[in-house]
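Translate structure to sequence.
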């Protein structure tokens, strides 16, 4: 696309600037100026928001297809296209705890689409299977398991270029296994995230200090904060640098809990959709022993547990603004700028800035999508 957007309110990544013009060409932002820029294809945005496309680091499915069920390139493309419609222009498709063979198949599927669409599909998030069974949530007990040295080695041998995030419960690893895992992760682009964990405060703090920079879906699948044992949540709040994802769907976190987390973590907090299906949500899924239904705007399994969400990141932004009372700039940062930084795309995605990839979304004042632009 070769176009100049003027009369735009742009989100730079830190602030909103009104009456701006943005020229894009060959998939990049070439110029930004106050007022009007010359150009052949002028688009008047009439004061609407021009934002960096959202970056979702945890989502399992599109409107119909689900990565665990069908770990194919077609499914990965479907997940991307489903969420792109609502302004999520970069995704990290996610597997919940599954067999080793499914993980290997998903690695190949994501690798194929990464090559086709490197700014749209950024890699794979493997959530489990090395998590604490006491905090497995909706993960299948048939697949949650103790770490296996040969499996870990093969994952990194075959997927080091694809696996961008690996969620684990560090307390179920031996010290030798953790040391090996930290070395493997440090030698690749894989980020470790603490999640589905029953770790004590000290166990979690040790893990963060040793090489785990992230925590997966704050508050959920973690032992609740206690005055005598602050546990994982206390360790996240107390640590100076660990970053945490949060599911703002109106069910996983009360708006007050969102506001408290933002007050504690500031720019270390970011949003994920955790979408099982979305846009629109699929009514039900029965895959192996994972049986879920969509009722009352949420997914639950046969045990009544929440099983992912039914939202896109735009929905999460709206919950943060409308229900939790966060500033729009903070909600937008949590959905774009911070996740782009985390995934290693800080110089290409997550900002409206000269030289950045033109993955952009136009929202009206009611935060409804008017246009999605991708490189």
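Result:
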């Amino acid at each position: 696309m070769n176009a100049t957007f003027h009369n735009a309110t742009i989100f730079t990544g830190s602030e909103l600037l009104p009456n701006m013009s943005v020229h894009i060409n060959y998939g990049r932002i070439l110029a930004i100026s106050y007022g009007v820029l010359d150009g052949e294809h002028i688009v008047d945005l009439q004061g609407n928001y021009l934002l960096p496309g959202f970056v979702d680091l945890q989502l399992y499915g599109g409107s119909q297809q689900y990565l665990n069920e069908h770990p194919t390139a077609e499914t990965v493309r479907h997940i991307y296209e489903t969420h792109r419609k609502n302004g999520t222009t970069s995704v990290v498709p996610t597997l919940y705890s599954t067999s080793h063979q499914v993980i290997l198949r998903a690695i190949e599927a994501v690798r194929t689409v990464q090559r086709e669409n490197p700014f749209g599909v950024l890699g794979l998030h493997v959530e489990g299977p090395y998590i604490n069974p006491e905090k497995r949530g909706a993960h299948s007990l048939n697949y949650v398991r103790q770490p296996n040295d040969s499996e870990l080695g093969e994952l990194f041998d075959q997927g080091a270029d694809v696996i961008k995030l690996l969620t684990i419960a560090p307390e179920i690893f031996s010290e030798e296994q953790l040391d090996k895992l930290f070395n493997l992760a440090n030698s690749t682009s894989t980020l470790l995230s603490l999640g589905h964990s029953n770790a004590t405060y000290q166990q979690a703090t040790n893990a963060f200090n040793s090489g785990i920079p992230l925590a997966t879906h704050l508050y959920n699948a973690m032992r609740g904060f206690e005055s005598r044992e602050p546990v994982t949540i206390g360790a996240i709040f107390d640590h100076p640098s660990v970053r945490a994802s949060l599911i703002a769907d109106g069910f996983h976190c009360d708006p007050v809990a969102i506001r408290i987390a933002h007050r504690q973590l500031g720019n270390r907090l970011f949003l994920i959709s955790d979408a099982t299906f979305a846009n629109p949500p699929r009514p039900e899924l029965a895959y192996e022993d994972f049986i879920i239904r969509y009722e009352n705007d949420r997914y639950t399994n046969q045990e009544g547990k929440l099983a992912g969400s039914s939202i896109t990141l735009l929905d999460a932004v709206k919950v943060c603004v409308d229900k939790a009372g966060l500033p729009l700039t903070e909600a937008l940062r949590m959905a774009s700028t911070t996740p782009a930084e985390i995934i290693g795309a800080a110089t290409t995605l997550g900002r409206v800035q000269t030289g950045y990839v033109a993955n952009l979304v136009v929202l009206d004042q009611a935060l409804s999508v008017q246009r999605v632009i991708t490189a």
